[in-house]
Amino acid sequence: MTHENYIEIMNIPHSQPSLGQKEAEAAGRVIMSAYIAQGKEVFRFEQAMAARIGVPCAVSTSSGTAALHLTLLAMGIGPGDQVIIPSYVCTSLLHAVNYTGAEAVLAEIIPETYNMSPEDVEKKISPRSKAIILPHMFGAAADTEAFLSFNIPLVEDCAQSLGGMQKGKMLGSIAHAAVFSFYANKVITTGEGGMVLSRSEDLTARIRDLRDYDNKAGYKIRYNYKMTDIQAAVGLVQLQRLDEFTARRKNIAEQYYQYLNNARSADAGIRLPHSDPGRIYYRFPVEIGKNADDLIRNMQKQGIACPRPVHCPLHRCLEQDAFPQTEKIWKNTVSLPIYPKLSDAEVRYTAEMLMKSAAFL
Ligand SMILES: Cc1ncc(COP(=O)(O)O)c(C=O)c1O
After folding, report:
1. 114 in ligand 1 pocket by Cβ < 6 Å?
2. CA of 88 to the centre of ligand 1 (A)
3. Cα(345)–Cα(83) distance, rounded to whole angstroms?
């Protein structure tokens, strides 16, 4: 390699949390208080999330999956029922439905937005449909109004969209209930963790009861799905930093658009995510017009982790076919690194390597 075309190979992970001194102090303060299980910090975190999203009730859980599971149980869903979910999403949703004994019915996505298609869902509604789980994929709002019009309990899945908006409303405040995840790669993190938000006091009271098995009058199946005060104290600090995080993510997305929105990338078959103004950039999915296997490998050689944003679509997990849109998007789409700690130089390097790899392959 000559001196002119030598570029130092960087090492860029796909995701990284943004945790600092304030989070360490908050966790340390709880540890030193010697009350570390679910307590007043969890209560404060629930109150802060409810205020931020603009709904009255919030119940924290040990994960987003636990939040989904308890929401479905509190909606009375069980064996014999069906729950509609997209195929293009992580397996958490399928697990949550299966835990209840209900059947997951999969729906296609709209390729332009990566969100579930209301037209396909309408075709799949049956008398057994008892809920729809609607993720706002990669941070961009799905068509919540269209799904509400089906008059089936609707759960917004905001695991990827905390801070996003739709028509002036916060995502998570629109449907019957909403779930959030605070896993390590999410917009804000508590390591592991989740929450359910809702306007329904009845629903959240049932979830509150189900998440903790101990000291109850009468026995029924309950769970240990609690968040700890250590996690909640970290979550409170992270929530105060949410605007800072979403602003930096947006700034990185703008840089990607600047580098990649041109004739060269169009020639290479690159399609960038849609830039709906209310969205947040949890992920920056890029469709490359062909199977992404070679590109992912090539980027890895350049030190950049850009896997498919969905590891395996659910129709593949369930060995179903007839999901042509999801199948094509899944095969051809990669997720570029986007997180507050990513430097401008790393963004530029990633965009350059993507252009080179896409044009070369
Ligand atoms: C859309 C969506 N829903 C739910 C979850 C589950 O969250 P958790 O990992 O906290 O269980 C995830 C996690 O990646 C997700 O992306």
Report:
1. no
2. 13
3. 44
Q: Which of the four pLDDT bands, split at 50, 70 and 90, describes residue 76?
A: very high
Residues 260 and 161 in one domain: no
Q: Burial letters for 66-76: b for 16+ Cβ neighbours within 10 Å, e otherwise?
A: bbbbbbbbbbe
Sign, CA dihedral 38-40-43-49, equals: negative
Burial degree of 202 (CB within 10 A; 0-12, 13-18, 19+): exposed
- Cα of 212 vs centre of ligand 1, distance in Å, is 21
> For position 7, what pLDDT does the model report?
63
For residue 268, how far is its CA from the centre of ligand 1 (angstroms)? 32
Same domain, 222 and 158: yes
Does the beta carbon of 64 sit less than 6 angstroms from any atom of ligand 1? yes
297-347 confidence digits (pLDDT tens): 999 999 999 999 999 999 999 999 999 999 999 999 999 999 999 999 999
Same domain, 33 and 176: yes
Domain of residue 288: give its range: 242-360
- Considering 190, 209, 239, which residue would you say is the last residue of a domain? 239
Q: Mean of the per-residue pLDDT values for the chain?
A: 96
| Whole-structure pTM value | 0.97
Q: Which of 153, 184, 88, 142 minimizes the C-alpha distance to 274?
A: 142
| Cα–Cα dist 150/86, whole Å | 16
